[in-house]
Amino acid sequence: MKTLVGPFSQLLTMEGLPLKGALSDSLMKVITGGALLLDGEMIAGAGSFEELRQKYPDAELREIEGDSVCMPGMIDVHTHICWGGSRAGDYASRIAGKTYLEIAGEGGGINVSVRGTREASPGELLEGLRQRALRHLREGVTTCEVKSGYGLDRESELKILRVINQADQELPIDLIPTALCAHIRPFDFEGTERQYLDHVLEEILPAIKDEKLAGRADIFIDQGAFTKEDGAYFLGKASDLGFRLTVHADQFTPGTSGLAVRAGALSADHLENISEEDIDFLAASSTVAVALPGCSVGLGMKYAPARKLLDRGASVAISTDWNPGSAPMGDLLMQAALISAAEKLSSAETFAAVTFRAAAALDLKDRGFLKKNMLADFILFPTGDFREILYNQGKLKPSRLWKKGMEV
Ligand code: NIG
Ligand code: FE
What we know:
Layout: E1 3-12, E2 30-39, E3 42-48, H1 49-55, E4 60-63, E5 69-72, E6 74-76, H2 88-95, H3 100-105, H4 110-119, H5 122-138, E7 141-147, H6 154-170, E8 174-182, H7 193-210, E9 216-220, H8 228-240, E10 244-249, H9 257-262, E11 267-270, H10 276-283, E12 288-291, H11 293-299, H12 306-311, E13 316-318, H13 332-343, H14 347-353, H15 356-361, E14 378-381, H16 387-391, E15 400-403, E16 406-407
Parallel strand pairs: 1-4, 1-5, 6-7, 7-8, 8-9, 9-10, 10-11, 11-12, 12-13
Antiparallel strand pairs: 1-2, 2-3, 5-14, 14-15, 15-16
The structure holds N-(iminomethyl)-L-glutamic acid and fe (iii) ion (FE).
Fe (iii) ion binds next to loops.
């Protein structure tokens, strides 16, 4: 039994838009009086409400009243939302003038969350994750990547990834786990950074693989984390183990996104300090550039040069980096609106960055567009004009949403 949902004042399918480069709004096909035909979890058709209604007279009708803009459910490709404890102390120090790296050097930073997360029981972690994931879903995020990286020993990393997998099973939102065991060398590891990475490669990633807890691996390469040499070493070995790659790159110092491209990473994330040379290198590759405006806001630092990346031909996704330290806000729509205003991104570029270009960063081929044979993941905004969405700077939230064909 098929279901017809519509009419929408405007339907943005994102269909036909290219994976890379700048986009003007006029390239975006806007179907006035559009509708979606659903078949179970999937989309069976997208087009004019009147035409679909005539063609499928037996479809069950879910009539939409009032103004609505329909677009694909948003995809957040970079979060750290499974954590214990609080970093309000770090934040207070930062707004009083200390830098992220100074605070980390004085025993604050990621290690505070490592302690808090190790102390938390699986049930406590699950509850925190559930609340954040459900808030994300209510705000229009239908797929969300979640990293480990606050355990940083074998048992704690496994604990976090089991919790993420359990939440994925229990909640309507899709959660995509990533092993970020190479976040930093934790405070209690006795040995060098390289020895810690070897421990991750020999003891932790194989266990994650055996339990099928994650198919993706990430590493933070920067001052205070891992060097480029260690990073290149890790990426090669993690890939040999069968993990798809993503990298925390060029956040404070340039020179890492090129490494991500050479390693064949799906995405290079952060990029606040990417070099001119690496902009071109990244733009010529299939690695998606992921901007994390929530981290720029959280640290009071500049945004990734999204405009330049797009003009030079890169594929740009926008994600929250939602984490207890550098990016506590976790509001994808608001952050997308903020970076679009600062970097001069069109609605088409901004929506692409949270839909099909984000899907590419996770190598998910079944979502990001509203067309036949894609998942029926879509959101409705209570307006008749898509330009109102960014104009309201994140305060116009989706009023209704469907995940895998079911209204949530
Ligand atoms: O993406 N840059 C490194 N990792 C996280 C921050 C994690 C933290 O401070 O807890 C990030 O910003
Ligand atoms: Fe991050």
